Amino acid sequence: MTQVYSSTFFRGGTNASHPTIGNKSYTGDYKESVMPYYSRILSPTYLAVELLVKIAGEVMRFVVGPLRTNTYVVVCIDGSALVIDPGPGAFYRITYLVDRNLVKPKYILLTHAHFDNAADAEDLREALGAKLIMSIHEFPVFKTSRTLARIFNIRWRDPLPDIPLYKDTTLKLCNYTALFLHTPGHTPGSLSIYFPELNLAFTGDLLLSSGVVGTEDRDKALLSINKLVQIIPRSTKILPCRGPPAILSEVLSRLSL
Asked: What span, in angstroms and rounded, lies between the C-alpha atoms of 98 and 90?
């Protein structure tokens, strides 16, 4: 596995396509790391794409929204792609790449349905015809997400799953095996998504690289982490919903129980 720690910048046009943003074009450098959220949401003309992993395909990360949430794109060899946790602002970045034939998203995966992880999921599903995969146990979370989206002035539409998950499920997505593990604790229907061929696991807000456990129910979260450790190798790279990636064994050594 080769790690690449560089950034690529894409130049775009106007932001008239999104229903919540006015018709205005922008010039000048766009750097997500130094611009305030208000500027980021209004300035999709320069898109920072951090390339985290490059193997058979590649994994790209966008940092989006007021809570600095990670949205991931897993790109396969044939250009088809999986979008994971498209938070507020991900719509611009994904459709920009699609318009230039750089990616062809086939699936949208949600680790959970908090607004900062899923705000753009339904818009992307509708615009791209990609199939949305999420746990049915997340439906009660929609109410909280609607409320918080209003507070942050974020557009929210309840995501409608094409492939609803009821329990642990293994699916073949774009030639990769994806193991969807029911790991509640942060939310009732939180999923951890493990790709054995890539040696990657997307853990949402359940387990961050710092060792912090994101919980609404701590007891369930600890049970979920124990389940995760029993199933995936400790050499697996963890890609959480916020913060940098880390190796599972390193995360566990920092874990405060």
From this structure: 12
Looking only at Cα atoms, what is the longest distance across the chain?
A: 51
Residue with token string 């994904």: 94
* Length in residues, the chain: 257
Angle, alpha carbons 1-99-4 (nearest 5°): 20
CATH number at residue 178: 3.60.15.10
Q: Which of 103, 98, 121 is nearest to 111 (CA)?
A: 121
Rounded Cα distance between 250 and 211, Å, is 8
Query: What six digits make up the tokens of 158?
Result: 């309840």
Residue 88: how many other CB atoms lie within 10 Å: 28
Please state, in angstroms and rounded to a whole number, the distance separating the CA atoms of residues 3 and 55.
Answer: 9
Task: Convert the pLDDT of each residue in 71-95 to its tens digit.
Answer: 999 988 888 999 999 999 999 889 9
Strands (DSSP E) along the chain, which ranges? Answer: 2-3, 7-11, 46-54, 58-64, 69-75, 80-84, 104-109, 131-135, 163-165, 169-173, 176-182, 191-195, 200-204, 237-240, 246-247
Q: How many domains does the chain have?
A: 1
Listed in sequence order, the residues at least 6 apart from 160 whose beta carbon sits closer than 8 Å to its beta carbon are 122, 125, 132
pLDDT, tens digit (0-9, with 9 covering 90-100), for 123-177: 999 999 999 999 999 999 999 999 999 999 999 999 999 999 999 999 999 889 9
For residue 211, what are the domain limits? 2-254
